[in-house]
């Protein structure tokens, strides 16, 4: 029987949960805003992806994060021990010749007790979503110093930074150069299918772990990835992996978590295909550098449009301009400036444009409360009309105000 993607409504007993309000985490925003490229919406409000060598489906209700971790055929959750296996890669321009690359594959499942397994999974999620950081406190802090940010943050609550595996983050972000999120997602999936260890199949969809540095550094990887339409990025991926292993060693990326931000940033920039923006993305999204502020043309435009950052007629972002814009936002937002940047970046994506146009629940509540006050005033007869654009209009009416005003609010699907 073909395994299916889990859906909370039909398989509640197979799910685990933890308290997590949507004001602290919104999956639809956080998993689709260009941080990680491993998550897809497999059912309405259900996100399936690979994290920590496991396949997960996540969903949420107002105050609860629900998660399901898929198991092997033996119905035991996969453990973390690995073995090495050879995977054939088709070499470009050589249809009959195959080359071998070593990748890490799962051993037979490591048996763990149910309690141990659930405790480990919950800790993995807490670490991945960095749930120890209180977004409510940060939003209040940023909003008090930045009125524009407060307007955006009231709509885009629940956007938070992921703490990704540094190898996955670096090699995924290298693929983003001159690229769109949807295409990067396809490229990362192709990379995993070519070089990553297979984990499981769900409804014809194969899930693979992210490739190891050893697999990425193989001399035949560039040809393999060029055959998968990676273009010039194929060389950057292979050369960066090789340089890390030959010059620094397999633990180098994780060790950068323990050095100051600028040191980590400069170290990453020594790798092929890694400029300032890629380095800052990796610092922010996987190396615990909360003050790293990635600057691209989107953030440059935001700085000029919304923060009156001086426009000196420059056509491109030089290293000097990059540092100045980053310092501008760090001075405004403080030690978690990178987290604040992610909220504005997310709000500027076209896919989330509808969120900014929809009436905000807090505004609707204010209008409803105002209506009640007006209704209680003798002789003041008012009704509320919800316009097509979502705005709320108060109009006088001769009808009896004792009737309950209805306010239909359409929940629009994001993305």
From TrEMBL:
Chief location category: nucleus
Annotated HhH-GPD domain residues: 175-342
Protein origin, superkingdom: Eukaryota
InterPro entries: DNA_glycosylase, HhH-GPD_domain, HhH_base_excis_C, OGG_N, Oxidative_DNA_repair_enzyme
Gene3D superfamilies from the UniProt entry: 3.30.310.40, Helix-hairpin-Helix base-excision DNA repair enzymes (C-terminal) (1.10.1670.10), Hypothetical protein, domain 2 (1.10.340.30)
Keyword Cytoplasm recorded: no
Region feature (Disordered): 363-415
Any one Pfam family match given in the protein's UniProt record, by short name: OGG_N
E.C. no: 4.2.99.18
Reactions catalysed: 2'-deoxyribonucleotide-(2'-deoxyribose 5'-phosphate)-2'-deoxyribonucleotide-DNA = a 3'-end 2'-deoxyribonucleotide-(2,3-dehydro-2,3-deoxyribose 5'-phosphate)-DNA + a 5'-end 5'-phospho-2'-deoxyribonucleoside-DNA + H(+)
Keywords, comma-separated and alphabetical: DNA damage, DNA repair, Glycosidase, Hydrolase, Lyase, Multifunctional enzyme, Nucleus
GO molecular function, one term: class I DNA-(apurinic or apyrimidinic site) endonuclease activity
Biological process annotations from GO: base-excision repair, AP site formation; nucleotide-excision repair
Record's GO cellular component terms: nuclear matrix; nuclear speck
Subcellular location(s) per record: Nucleus matrix; Nucleus speckle; Nucleus, Nucleoplasm
Main function: DNA repair enzyme that incises DNA at 8-oxoG residues. Excises 7,8-dihydro-8-oxoguanine and 2,6-diamino-4-hydroxy-5-N-methylformamidopyrimidine (FAPY) from damaged DNA. Has a beta-lyase activity that nicks DNA 3' to the lesion.
Protein family: Belongs to the type-1 OGG1 family.
Record PANTHER family: 8-OXOGUANINE DNA GLYCOSYLASE, N-GLYCOSYLASE_DNA LYASE
Name the UniProt record assigns to this protein: N-glycosylase/DNA lyase
């Amino acid at each position: 029987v073909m395994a299916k993607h889990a859906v909370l409504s039909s398989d509640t007993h197979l799910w685990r949960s933890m308290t997590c309000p949507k004001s602290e985490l919104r999956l639809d925003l956080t998993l689709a805003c260009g941080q990680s490229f491993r998550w897809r919406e497999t059912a309405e409000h259900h996100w399936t992806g690979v994290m920590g060598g496991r396949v997960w489906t996540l969903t949420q209700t107002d105050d609860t994060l629900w998660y399901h971790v898929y198991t092997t055929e033996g119905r035991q959750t996969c453990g973390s021990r690995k073995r090495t296996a050879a995977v054939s890669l088709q070499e470009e321009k050589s249809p009959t010749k195959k080359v071998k690359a070593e990748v890490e594959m799962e051993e037979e499942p490591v048996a763990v007790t149910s309690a141990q397994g659930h405790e480990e999974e919950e800790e993995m999620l807490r670490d991945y979503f960095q749930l120890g950081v209180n977004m409510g406190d940060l939003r209040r802090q940023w909003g008090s110093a930045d009125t524009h940010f407060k307007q955006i943050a009231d709509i885009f609550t629940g956007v938070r930074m992921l703490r990704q595996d540094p190898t996955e983050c670096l090699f995924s972000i290298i693929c983003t150069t001159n690229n769109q999120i949807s295409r990067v997602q396809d490229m990362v999936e192709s990379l995993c299918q070519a070089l990553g260890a297979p984990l499981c199949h769900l409804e014809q969809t194969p899930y693979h772990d992210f490739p190891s540095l050893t697999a990425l550094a193989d001399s035949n990887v560039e040809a393999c990835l060029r055959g998968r339409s990676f273009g010039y990025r194929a060389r950057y991926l292979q050369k960066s992996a090789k340089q890390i292993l030959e010059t620094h060693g397999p633990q180098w990326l994780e060790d950068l978590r323990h050095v100051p931000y600028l040191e980590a940033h400069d170290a990453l920039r020594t790798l092929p295909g890694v400029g300032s923006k890629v380095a800052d993305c990796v610092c922010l999204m996987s190396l615990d550098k909360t003050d790293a502020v990635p600057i691209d043309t989107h953030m440059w435009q935001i700085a000029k449009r919304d923060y009156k950052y001086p426009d000196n007629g420059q056509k491109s972002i030089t290293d000097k301009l990059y540092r100045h814009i980053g310092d501008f936002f760090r001075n405004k937002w403080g030690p978690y400036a990178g987290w604040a940047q992610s909220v504005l970046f997310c709000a500027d994506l076209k896919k989330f444009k509808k969120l900014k146009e929809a009436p905000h629940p807090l505004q609707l509540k204010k209008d409803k409360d105002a209506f009640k006050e007006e209704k209680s005033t003798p002789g003041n007869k008012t009704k509320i009309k919800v316009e097509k654009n979502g705005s709320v209009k108060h109009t006088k009416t001769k009808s009896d105000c004792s009737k309950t005003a209805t306010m239909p609010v359409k929940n629009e699907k994001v993305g």
